[in-house]
Amino acid sequence: MQAQAQPAPPQAQQAAQQPQSVPQEELNDEQLKEAVRLEKDEVETFRVLFHRAAGPASTLPGKLAVAFFSRSGLPNPALKLIWAACDRGGKGHLTRPEFILAARLIALAQVGYRPTIEQLKLYKSRFPIP
Predict the structure, then answer these.
(1) What would the pLDDT profile of 1-14 be if each residue is shown by its tens digit?
(2) Structure pTM?
């Protein structure tokens, strides 16, 4: 029996080290929620992660995001592309849903996929927690 078809991931190292500047679509709130596909058992995990990154604030400022997301092990060019896709409107901070989107894209890059919204929509397996 054949496993569910997934787009083949590029080599993880190559994808993370050589991100391409691909225009990312900007998602509205409903599209973001649909793309992220947060499972009920993940809600608390992401609440805790957001609190660790942002503290009591309701948004995550860019400086704190850099410090938090750099622990992912991804190179800065990949993280910059992810930030550009998630900081809707270029406001310099992430809301909790945008933070979760960034975490999903980081997780994709960590397992060898290109960290794009298009790839996120194509990914059908359960997401790893970055």
Answers:
(1) 443 434 444 444 34
(2) 0.77
